[in-house]
């Protein structure tokens, strides 16, 4: 969703018209599914009775980052549907772009921490560590949000609403003071968003899979509980890499284009369209995670079902209490037995 002068020269193609027609409904679908799914995940984590585990802290922050992301996408859906006419002001232009940029960095860091936590839980279950302390995990999450904001600060600094006379629109435009900032953006995304977290995630994943295959280790009751959580984490990591790896490759190709190793409008069109497709594939990851929790995470399903059963049970108890408290005399108490019997029918006719 970046707009620059070279894009204006080389983008007059049928492919862009076709792509622009598909983007708004696709973004709308991601937004609806993402808001519903991530809100459900946060409700389950926040309303559960037991204290948060370290994995809950990381996955809850991941759901919060995904929720912020999908809440920002409708603004771009409306903008693309109106031929990139930005109608929400410069403050929202900067804020929304910064939140979207933060989502990727925070998500990959939270997943890296989740993989480390699963590694410690499975590969070193008998070695207690401060790394598996929920209080410590919350502090780390605050640090991750700060780092994500710092890495996304150029979007806040250089995004602005500019008028393009050739198009007759005001667009939310990423205007760098020097072309070298494009190289900085690509390197920051590739290094901090991929090259640094990937070895940590890969190493932890290797040991997690190795621990899952260790039958002697699985005899321990504590490890048996961690096993299902590790399977969920592996699934989330795999889907994340499938969704965001094309985006990282396109950013690397964009770096090659910066040095003009493959010039020409054809290459510009291919690169720009690939960037759009890879970006929206990455955005879709924010709406996939909640469904992975439900499909793969049996422990999460049980918690969600227990939460809803608890809410429905408390609702019935509240209604019964209101009925019983509304009576002031023994006669009133006797008259309330009939609706209570209707609410709780007898098991057998004899009763």
TrEMBL record:
- According to the entry, every stretch annotated as the G-protein coupled receptors family 1 profile domain falls at 37-293
The record's annotation in InterPro entries points to: Brdyknn_2_rcpt (IPR001504), Brdyknn_rcpt (IPR000496), CCR1-9-like (IPR050119), GPCR_Rhodpsn (IPR000276), GPCR_Rhodpsn_7TM (IPR017452)
Q: Which PROSITE patterns match?
A: G_PROTEIN_RECEP_F1_1, G_PROTEIN_RECEP_F1_2
Q: What does the UniProt entry say about where the protein is found?
A: Cell membrane
The alphabetized UniProt keywords are:
Cell membrane, Disulfide bond, G-protein coupled receptor, Glycoprotein, Lipoprotein, Membrane, Palmitate, Phosphoprotein, Receptor, Transducer, Transmembrane, Transmembrane helix
Single GO MF annotation: C-C chemokine binding
Q: Name the Pfam families for this protein.
A: 7tm_1 (PF00001)
Keyword Chloroplast carried by entry = no
Spell out the GO cellular component terms annotated for this protein, sorted alphabetically and separated by semicolons.
external side of plasma membrane
SUPFAM superfamilies named in the record: Family A G protein-coupled receptor-like
**Topology versus the membrane:** Multi-pass membrane protein
The parts of the chain that form a coiled coil are none
Record-annotated membrane-spanning stretches:
26-47, 59-81, 101-120, 140-158, 191-209, 229-247
Q: Does the keyword Metal-binding apply?
A: no
How would you summarize the oligomeric state and partners of this protein? Forms a complex with PECAM1 and GNAQ. Interacts with PECAM1.
Task: Report the function annotation for this chain.
Answer: Receptor for bradykinin. It is associated with G proteins that activate a phosphatidylinositol-calcium second messenger system.
Report the sequence similarity comment from the record.
Answer: Belongs to the G-protein coupled receptor 1 family.
Q: What is this protein called?
A: B2 bradykinin receptor
Give the source species: Danionella cerebrum
